[in-house]
Write a structure and sequence with these properties.
By secondary structure, this protein is of the alpha+beta class. The chain contains ten helices and nine strands. A hairpin with a 4-residue loop joins strand 3 and strand 4. Helix 4 packs across helix 6, helix 6 packs across helix 7 and helix 6 packs parallel to helix 10. The longest helix has 21 residues.
């Protein structure tokens, strides 16, 4: 009975949090709070992910969630964050960029694994990426310092161009932070330096094909979508070179084929 009461209390608390959540990762605004079942399933996924992170032995990982259906673009997960382990406290903390609902603004958020999944999920499944130990150590240092904040651009664009600093999407912030961690110490302190380093490495993102009608509709009706940072010829051809979660995973695997990638369901 006590366990049942604790579970109900946890769900009630989560419902209040869900109703107050002001930011998303490029998802459409949702007026109504999450249902009890949505909260339960989200927190269950969070618990399983937390346990998988603990079992991995990692200190830093990347976690991705499926906040919307992007299957027509060949993308399974919509949003990614960096999760860091606090060994002393026995907890994991997620650092990620979120877009303020209905706007073209974003900020960096620091929160628990439960809150990361406490959103309007399309599919209750998570992806976990474990980089090499040396990369984990450097990412942890960057996130704890000022560089990760300097690499954040508050002008949000869900389909921002990979090699422009005009806008940024949430996965692009993760990629540029990983670039800073992978480059020689001190070589990358700004977004321009991160992108220059990625170019010098020959890095390319998978192209997302977005037809003209879809581009026009998105630009007219969504504040957080723009295409004016993309090269004109590629934009007109519907070839959108933006940073998806797959692009980040490809980068990490390209640097270290031994990278561990697994799914939590």
């Amino acid at each position: 009975m006590r366990a049942h009461r604790d579970r109900l209390a946890r769900v009630a608390c989560a419902l209040m949090l869900a109703a107050a959540l002001p930011a998303h990762a490029g998802q459409p605004c949702r007026d109504e709070p999450l249902s009890v079942d949505e909260v339960r399933r989200s927190l269950d996924l969070a618990q399983r992910t937390f346990a998988a992170l603990d079992a991995s032995g990692a200190s830093v990982a990347l976690i991705a969630r499926a906040g919307q259906d992007l299957s027509k673009y060949g993308v399974a997960y919509s949003h990614m964050g960096i999760v860091v382990r606090d060994h002393a406290a026995g907890r994991w903390t997620v650092v990620h960029e979120l877009n303020a609902c209905g706007t073209a603004d974003s900020d960096l958020f620091v929160e628990g694994v439960g809150n990361f999944f406490l959103t309007d999920l399309y599919r209750y499944r998570a992806q976990v990426v474990i980089p090499a130990p040396d990369v984990q150590a450097r990412v942890a240092t960057l996130v704890a310092g000022r560089t990760a904040r300097r690499l954040h651009e508050p002008h949000y664009n869900m389909l921002s161009y990979v090699y422009s600093t005009r806008y940024q999407n949430s996965n692009q912030w993760v990629l540029e932070t990983l670039a800073a961690a992978s480059a020689p110490a001190g070589a990358v302190e700004t977004r321009a330096e991160a992108q220059a380093w990625l170019k010098n490495q020959g890095y390319r993102v998978p192209t997302v094909e977005v037809p003209a009608v879809a581009r026009l509709g998105a630009r007219m009706f969504r504040a957080n979508v723009a295409f004016d940072d993309h090269p004109f010829n590629r934009r007109m051809a519907g070839q959108i070179d933006t940073v998806t979660t797959d692009a980040v995973v490809n980068f990490v695997r390209g640097r270290d084929p031994q990278t561990r990638v697994f799914v939590v369901e």
